[in-house]
Amino acid sequence: MIKMEEFCSFDTNLFFLPFRVKRNAQDKPAIAIFSYIGNDVCGYNADPALDDTTTPEQARAGLLDTMAVLNSKLPAGSHALIVGVADARPFFASLMDKIHPFGAVREDVTYLNFYEWLECLDINPCKGWLTGDETIRAVTAQRVVNINNELQRVVQEYQHQFPNVEMVYIPNPVDDVLAAWLASGGESWQLVEAFDGFHPNQKAHQLVAEVLWNRLERDHPSVIGPINPNNDRIRELFGNQGGH
User: Could you tell me if 80 and 32 are in contact, meaning their C-beta atoms sit under 8 angstroms apart?
Assistant: First the structure.
């Protein structure tokens, strides 16, 4: 399993990728996960000259360059899961009026207060999402849509250009996780890591893994491959470890 993310710096990732991935005759097909994430849309700036978000064109180029390397290194029959970027608006919108841990004693510092302070210091880690400005969050969300559309186009147009690695586009599992969580009576903020108010917490990671695995089993079983014929022997030697 190979995971690649934060490809706003994909030149660096491409430099290291050949050293992490090497093909040999005994290799079984691999699964690579390619994911643009929050960092790619965090660098919003109202001045286009200063905007530091990943463009759809850069997303396209980064994916194609990476696929060329993977195709040259991975054994035939491998797969690359191309995961879309998540829309983070529901999470911060549900969290921004709640008390941040910094304000827990006096209950006087909300998440929005905290990130407005960081914005004042010009150190907000994700201006595109962590803001009370709905317009900025909407612009960031549109960039997410544009990047995801471009990724899907690459998967459709270049599917047969990489004979060793089949590309599979996967909408970000967070969308399904959030929908199921809300339907069960939960709230968006309950899936967010409490201190930073941005990253998924442990519960969210568990649910994302379940959604992704179920989607692969249902829609793309070829990615998972055949059942390991040595499973019984593994249980005999090591006991039933629940799939681990």
Answer: yes
Do the beta carbons of residue 21 and residue 70 sit within 8 Å?
yes
Confidence bin at 39 (pLDDT 50/70/90):
confident
Place of tokens 């005759």: 25
Among 90, 105, 111, 87, residue whose Cα is nearest residue 194: 111
Q: Which long-range contacts (CB under 8 A, 24 or more apart) does 18-27 make?
A: 18/69, 18/73, 21/69, 21/70, 21/73, 21/74, 22/73, 23/73, 23/74, 23/75, 27/74, 27/75
| β pairing state of 2-5 and 31-35 | parallel
Model pTM score: 0.86
User: What does the pLDDT look like over 68-90, one tens digit per residue?
Assistant: 999 999 999 999 999 999 999 99
Closest CA to 35 of 190, 198, 144: 144
Element (H, E) at 167: strand 165-170
Q: How far apart are CA 200 and CA 212, in angstroms?
A: 15
